[in-house]
Structure formats: structure tokens, C-alpha cells
User: What shape does this take?
Amino acid sequence: MSVTLQTAPFDPGALLTRFSADREETGAIASFTGLARAEGGQTTTLELEAYEGFTDLEITRAVDAAIHRFGLQDALVVHRIGPIAPGEAIVFVACAAAHRRAAFEACDQLMDWLKSRAPFWKKEHGPDGSRWIEPTDRDRTDAARWDTENEQ
Amino acid sequence: MSVTLQTAPFDPGALLTRFSADREETGAIASFTGLARAEGGQTTTLELEAYEGFTDLEITRAVDAAIHRFGLQDALVVHRIGPIAPGEAIVFVACAAAHRRAAFEACDQLMDWLKSRAPFWKKEHGPDGSRWIEPTDRDRTDAARWDTENEQ
Amino acid sequence: MARVLLFGRFADIAGWREKTVDAASLSALRAALSVDPRLAEALDGPSVQVAVDKALVRADVALTQASEVAFLPPMSGG
Amino acid sequence: MARVLLFGRFADIAGWREKTVDAASLSALRAALSVDPRLAEALDGPSVQVAVDKALVRADVALTQASEVAFLPPMSGG
Assistant: This one.
């Protein structure tokens, strides 16, 4: 299991190559790559702020919980912080399991959590100025799909 | 959109690198990599047979349908045929969309279709001999989740 | 005369994967193939599909010399 | 004396991201920060979370010289 916050751009394919190597009993790897959209020129830069030592720990807890909940063999999260240009990867999540249902559901649940509850603060810079972004209602209802009575 | 059947091994990461390049308005890429499992030594080789000119056309139709159903920007399927060793990739599916829900659902649906309804014939070779594989009940019920009254 | 293709376990049962058979229709072709009773029984099984010129057919169809007939056992999925 | 960290729009409002403030408790720290009324109002807003030494706190807590207090606006997600 690995969680990384980094300011440098990354290639999601290179991460998937390493994550999928030497797996004799993994039947399924689901991955998700989130890219910064240009929004037709409305977003020139996305800027992500994290609280180092806190944000990474919260993500690690969420990944640990997903590993246990879905019975994953392994999981990887890489998340950019700092300024991000359109077309660049913001986040990469990969989940390895024996069978595909667990891998898909874990990846989907982790992304919903990351998009709505992970401690990041996100600013969009565009030709009309800058604004802080909050999760959309859709992000919140997507994340709530995974809530159970046993969890907060 | 691209559908490929090939006997040569492939690196899913290299496919994801190419698929995710130069996308200024794609917010989300969901991918799935299916790997051959060793099953603790019970499977030494997986052998996949396709009907060329038929299997690839059926997959192309399924991908086209997913593009329209989920509003994808792009999709890619690469599928191995012939003998496959444990740990090697059997299938790679990637779906690009503006938002993550569409990308995840399309990738999930395409995999369910590929695992239960795509025209492949699959033989497992192991120390105890060879046997032909058919979709599991779980594969069939997973695929049926996506059936609608408007489709067959 | 049609080119006949067998897939999956049908090829194992018959001992061949491809053969040219003299038959003017799909039903005549099935009759010709029934010289091998194990193959004939397998081809009559449930969930077996038949493609003529790469399109699935459910009824009897006429065959020409250029026809390609494929017998497809229940699909394994990928 | 606690090290205070502001994140997201709180840093924009205050004009600083990090500052050392003399306060023996979280409530005393909030009182000290209220010299900037716009910041004080923002820190009192809904969904604001406070972490002391990287753990979220909901009640008042004592602070030491080594304490790190972070004010976290509603999270954006990644």
C-alpha cells in the first residue's frame, strides 16, 4: 500500500506499469486517473493545497479502510499538490484484487471519498480571476453511497 | 475508439500513458486490467480463442454502445488471444469522460460484458490437464445489472 | 461447398478446426457433419450459436461455395 | 505560544499562512486571532475544522509552546 502527495507531474501509465508487475494471483486492477480540465479556457491553472502530515495520514486511513472493506490485495494513491495545468493528472488510484467487483468498487469508493472528504483545498485560476472550489452536491451524494451504519 | 485483439503480451501502463495524453477536457479515465492468475500453480497457461473478424466486430459494437450510453469521450479495449502465462495481462479497458461516474460505469459495464458475453473460448491448462471455462453465475448476474428494456 | 470453422471444445471433439464440406444449406451441412455423432450431438447442444459469413443465424440458410460457417460453443468471455 | 497554520481561503482572508501566537488554550488563541474580525468570522463558520498537532479537536484544549494549530476550511476534495 502506498500513498504519495507530490508537486511534480506524474505519468499515470508509469504508475500502472509498476503496480501491475509481478502479480501472479491478482486477477483485477481497477485504476482511476483524474485530469485537470481546461473548461474551454476558463481554467488556466488548478491549485491544490494539502496539510502535509495530516492529509496524507487521512488518505492512508481511507485506503486502509478500503483494503479491509473490499478485501484488496494492494492499493496505490498518488495525488498532486501545488499548481496543475490543464491535461495534467491530479490523482491516480489503483486497486488490486483477486476479482474485478472488489477492485472496481474499492477504486470507485476511494475516488468518491477523495473528491468530497479528503483534506485538500482547491483553487481555480482563470482569465476572470481565482475562486476556491468546494465539493459539488453530486460529490457528496456519491460519497454517501458508501456510508454504512458501522462507519461515520 | 480502438479495439485490438493480439497474441503478443502488452503493458497496460504503456496503453494508459498513450490513452491519457493530450486530453484537455477529459476529467476522468477509468481503466481495468485483467491479469491471468496462477491459482497457486493450478493454472500454468490460459488459452484464449477468438473468431477474428467476428469477435473484434462484436467488441466494437459493445464499445460503441457504451460510448453512447454513458456519454464517453473515448474508449480503448486491448484483448490478448492465444496462450497467456500467469501474471500477464489478458485485457485492458480504458474509458475517458468529462466526469468520473460515467467513466467508472462504462468501464465496469464493458468488463461485465466482456467477461460473460464476448465471443471468446477459454481453456485453462494445469498440472491436472486442461478444461474449457464458461462464465460463472456471478459473471452472468453482473452483466445482467446493465440490461435495460431497450436492449437485448 | 462451404468452409466450416469449429471453435472451443467443438474443435477438440471433432479433431479438426477447419474443413471444406459440400452442402447447399445449413441443414444439409449439419446432416453431413453427423457422420461424427459426438460432434453432431455437441453442435445440437444448448447455447450453441451458428454464424454464416460472420453474422449469427437462427434459421436454415442457403450456402454457396464462398460461405463461411462457424459453430460457436457457449462463450467463455474474456 | 502556538504555531498557527491557515489553509485555503483562511490564508487569503488573513494575508498570512503561518504565525506564532501567544495563547495557553484554543479558546485563548481564537480570542487573540479576533483582532482580525474578518478572519474571526471565517474561523467561526460552518464546517470549519480545527486540528491540534494534526488531530481534529472539537472542544477547547490546552496549548503548549510546541503546539501546532491548523484551521481547516470546508474541504474541497482532490
